[in-house]
Write a structure and sequence with these properties.
two-stranded antiparallel sheet, 11 helices, single chain, elongated, alpha+beta, two-stranded antiparallel ribbon, 2 domains, 3-methyladenine DNA Glycosylase II, Chain A, domain 3, 36% helix, Alpha-Beta Plaits
Length: 275
């Protein structure tokens, strides 16, 4: 009752003022709505149907192995003709064939691959100094190339394991090790490793050398208990000529390798591993 009495005492001028304020606010709201509509139209991003179609066929792992921040960026790169479909190692061959058809390009024959760490140093690799800094490989490597005497040794901080979308990397005795049945060969670990000792090999490859050092035997033996000393026994013992020594390291020609394992048996450092 008191409220009604109070309202009744409000003079016409006050109601006029209220009406003006309400009109101004309504006008401002209308202007804002129109402005939003105009901005939305001016800055509207047209979605490329080709990009959408490509994205629908990509694996969607968003691993970054292709060099892009995610599958969306890679799809745009492909649509613009600036990307290479082979850079994606996660999407299935069937889906890649669909993408190739969308792009009007010929599908390349690709052999399935898996990542391997070319080092078994870890606790077997001698330290050059004690490292007590940020526990990442990137930080460790930024200080004189890392705390290992061997400058191609795994630093064992696990940066590769941290970025793996499939949890396919574990640390064993201070060195990263790939779990092959989980690896999708996305390349995230390859791009992350500051020592550049992770690479892809064919899934069907029977063996690989777990060392990246190109140093001579004396230096290797001073820095690591298991590193390849470049003796070439593996190459000489291979009955199929599948191994060539290049800069003190064996290089495998997997098109010739039959998996006889003669190299594994003869290696004095036991640094050639089977898969």
């Amino acid at each position: 009752m008191n409220l009604l009495v109070t309202l009744g005492t409000v003079d016409a001028q006050t109601w006029k003022t209220v009406g003006i304020v309400a009109g101004i606010l309504a006008g401002i709201a209308l202007v804002l709505v129109i402005a939003i509509l105009i901005v939305g139209k001016v800055f509207k991003v047209d979605v490329d149907e080709k990009v959408t179609a490509i994205l629908e066929n990509l694996a969607g792992a968003n691993c970054g192995g292709c060099g892009c921040s995610g599958c969306s960026g890679f799809a745009q790169k492909l649509a613009c003709g600036k990307g290479d479909l082979a850079d994606c190692h996660v999407t299935s061959p069937e889906k890649k064939a669909e993408i190739a058809k969308l792009l009007g390009i010929e599908m390349k024959d690709e052999e399935p691959t898996v990542a391997i760490v070319k080092c078994k140093g870890g606790e077997n690799a001698n330290d050059a100094f004690e490292y007590n800094g940020n526990p990442t490989c990137a930080a460790n490597a930024s200080l004189l190339g890392g705390n290992k005497m061997c400058k191609t040794a795994c630093l064992g901080c696990g940066d590769c394991a941290a970025v793996c979308p499939e949890k396919a990397i574990k640390l064993v005795n201070g060195v990263a090790e790939v779990i092959p049945e989980r690896c999708i060969s996305c390349g995230a670990c390859i791009n992350t490793c500051p020592k550049h000792i992770i690479e892809r090999i064919p899934v069907k490859a029977p063996v690989y050398v777990a060392c990246s050092s190109h140093c001579k035997a004396k230096e290797v033996m001073q820095s690591c208990k298991v590193g390849c000393i470049g003796c070439g026994v593996c190459a000489r013992s291979c009955p199929h000529g599948a191994i060539t020594m290049v800069d003190n390291l064996p290089v495998f020609d997997y098109s010739k390798c039959t998996g006889c394992l003669a190299c594994v048996a003869k290696c004095p450092r036991k640094i050639i591993y089977t898969r």
